[in-house]
Request: fold
Amino acid sequence: MQKEFEMSMMGELSFFLGLQIKQSKEGIFLCQSKYCKEILKKFEMENCKAATTPMSTNYYMSVDEAGTVVDQTKHRGLISSLLYLTASRPDIMFIVCLCARLQSSSRESHFKAAKRILKYLKGTTFVGLWYPSHSPIHLVGYSDSDFAGCKLDRKSTSGTCHLPDSSLISWLCQKSKQNIPKHPKNLSSSNQGEIVENEALMEPNL
Reply:
């Protein structure tokens, strides 16, 4: 490429679009701790009390039409910032995507849920992805679904991840396009296909 384009060596890559890269003989570590601190400071949460989880286990997010309306611009800005953080933080992807679904009609309860994520980030600022230099290539895939977990439209939210040995390389959190009928025996062919696909991911034949 140096023959075709004018290039200059800037040294070993350590920072790219908010993503911090630390390289060593043992492997590569990716994180967004600097960006995470900037988010906490931007939304005045740098001195908040840290939370151990990004959301409560018994929490259910609803439309909450009777709730108090909050600043739409501020709430959407927070969601956008959190979505970019999922580039290296799959542990917050589910709740961030859940908050993003209701950002068009933001209520105080929705904003509190998003701030709970910031409290979790306060205590996990330096969490990231580790890729060891010497690890066997054994691809494993996992999948799970909450099966009609959304009470508004009875749609499922599924999540998948893939790891060659112990290094996470891809992850996904997606809401189903079709709702699940109240009686499972009446599942359509497309719903059955989703279940079969999930089972195949959980038990890879490699």
About this structure: Strands lie at 15-16, 19-23, 27-31, 128-132, 139-145, 155-164, 170-179.
